[in-house]
Amino acid sequence: MAAKEIARISRPDPERFLRDYVRTRTPVIITDLFAGQPIDAIRTIEDASAAFGNVPMHVQTEYAVAASAPESAVETTMTFDEYWAHVRAHPDTALLCTEYEIPANIMQMFRLPEFCLADDLDRPEVLDMPRKYGDHDLCSNIFVANAGNRAHLHFDGDHRQVLLHQMFGRKQVLLFQPEACVDLRTTSGAPWSSGVYLERMSTAEQLDFIAEVGGYHAVLEPGETIYMPALIWHYLGYVDDAMSFNLRFKRNRYGRFLCVDNIHRDSYVQNLGSHLASDGDNPALAEAMPQIEAEYLRPAASLREKVSGMRAALRRACEQALPQTEPARFCPPQLDEQELDKIIADIGQTARYLDPELTAKSRPTGPISPVQKQTIRNTAARLGYSDELLEHLLWNRLGKSDLDALSKTEAVQFMVYMRSPGGALR
Ligand SMILES: [Fe+2]
């Protein structure tokens, strides 16, 4: 089998995008998603410096480097230009900007595509837990790093669909469907991380591996946007000094329930979640959910017992709804205890498996309050937003351009956005 190169298409209409790519979990590169918008004119580091060189960014030591040498790990704020001056002075720096809010100066240069909006606003949530991030449940991040950086092969736990837009520099993208988990040796690393080190392979070896296991590859060029299906395995390599941002969208009620806010990560959640994200109305998949919800609610003596019970319920669901993925192979019984240890180490210090009633009580509901509205207006004025820019940022960040239409939760999200280092207009 030859390694599959990810196809390139022109901006599809929303219906076709959802039917041909989201529904079928097929990655694709859109060559002109933001054609005609100001962001499309940013194709080099010089273009970016001229447009937003003085914008502050949150930078930190790369995750794996920080983990191996915590005493030298750094977390700070510097401007875009300062960051690149630092890279010139220290070409091997492990400092990068990753997974941080998109600064207002950059956010104003593009418009969130309509197809990113939720289409399930009238459907009840699983176990009645209110949406934590607003009606459209959106999230977005920027990434800025020097050549040679990479993100080790892993899958994300938020169950959202992803668009990754490359502004300047090229990025190598290698993807594998969730069902490749056995070949990706997921039991040898963290529960969401592969035991296969693509970063240690030559390009020819990477392509051989992709052909053997059945993956996808591409090098994303400036101005291009890749669609990555929810929960897909991804490896990203910085071919050049590069900048990109992602838009995370269209998570459905199942994804909100099964995501890392509530549940651990493993191959069962990943595989079931991937199919539910693309095809949530599939009866075989939907029928598997009540037993998982019941297990979630069942009292357990410890977190370990809870995770163990959930893994059994998720495995049964995979066996019933996705027999073709051969869930029995995901984790051989002799590795089950070791896998449980790793999951507990991964989530032990965080809040998961909370009582849905308590969760519901902790989340604000209802429309934006007059105080919130006034706070947003005052802060927006102080940060230099015009009315038009405020509407634009509300649209990109929350999928709503009318301040009056926000919920309390969305107002909180936006206030957090405005407080981020790049929140002010420069
Ligand atoms: Fe990721």
From TrEMBL:
It holds the Pfam family Cupin_8. InterPro entries: Cupin_8, JmjC_dom. Residues 91-266 form the JmjC domain. SUPFAM superfamilies: Clavaminate synthase-like. It comes from the Bacteria. This is JmjC domain-containing protein. It comes from Lysobacter enzymogenes.
